[in-house]
Structures are given as C-alpha cells and as structure tokens.
User: Which sequence fits this backbone?
C-alpha cells in the first residue's frame, strides 16, 4: 500500500458528516425562510389586489353615481321645460277657447234675447189682440142689448 495516498479513515468521516448536518439544517432553514417569504409576498399581493379592486369599485360607483345624478338633473330640467311649455300652450289655448265660448255665449244670449223679444212682442201683440177681441165681443153684446 502506498503511503502517499490519503484514504479517509473513520476518524475523518464524522467530521464531514457533522459539517454536512449543519449545512443541511441551515439549508432547510434557508428553504423554509425562502418559501415563507414567497408565501408572504404572494399573500401580500393577493391582499393588495383585493384592496385595490375594492378601491376601484368604489371609485367607479362614485363616478357612476355622479354621472347618473347629473344626467337625471338634465333630464328633469328638460322635462320641466317641456312641461312648462305645454302648460303655457294649454293656458293660451284655453284662454282662446274661453274667449270663443264667451263670444258664442254672447251671440246665443243676443239671439235668445232677440227671439224672446220677438216672441214677447208677438205674444204681447197676441195678448193685446185677444183683449181687443174680448172688448169687441163685449161691445157687440152691449150693442145687441141696446138694440
């Protein structure tokens, strides 16, 4: 056997295994720390995403509410203008119609008065004629009695 070759002896072997046991334990700690930090980063990213999504939803809801409110106010103003125009138009149409009805009523009243005056005059004349006839008949009777 050649004394120049270094063959490991059992006394040297435990030194290596002790060193490798320490390095294996430190490697496990490194892996655990590495995976824990990755899990922490992933969880933080997920939580940040959820928070940002909620924030964006709130912003969109607020913007949408503001736009809807502005649109509703515009629609309400337009509706009110149309309603006022319609009311004004109806009022003017009603006043024109009322004027026509009034003039028609005046015409009817005039024609009724004219008809009543004629009827009254003719009735009065008829009544007077009847009275004259009665007086004539009385006078005839009186003349007949006198003869």
Assistant:
């Amino acid at each position: 056997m050649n004394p120049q070759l270094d063959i490991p002896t059992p006394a040297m072997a435990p030194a290596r295994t002790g060193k490798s046991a320490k390095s294996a334990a430190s490697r496990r700690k490194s892996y655990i720390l590495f995976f824990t930090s990755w899990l922490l980063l992933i969880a933080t990213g997920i939580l940040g995403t959820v928070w940002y999504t909620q924030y964006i939803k709130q912003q969109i809801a607020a913007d949408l509410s503001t736009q809807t409110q502005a649109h509703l106010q515009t629609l309400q103003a337009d509706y009110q203008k149309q309603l006022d125009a319609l009311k004004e138009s109806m009022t003017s149409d009603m006043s024109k119609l009322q004027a026509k009805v009034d003039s028609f009523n005046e015409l009817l009243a005039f024609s009724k008065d004219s008809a009543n005056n004629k009827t009254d005059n003719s009735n009065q004349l008829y009544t007077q004629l009847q009275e004259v006839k009665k007086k004539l008949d009385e006078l005839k009777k009186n003349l007949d009695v006198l003869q």
About this structure: Confidence is low (pLDDT under 50) at residues 11-15. The longest helix spans residues 13-146. The chain is about 90% helix and 0% strand.
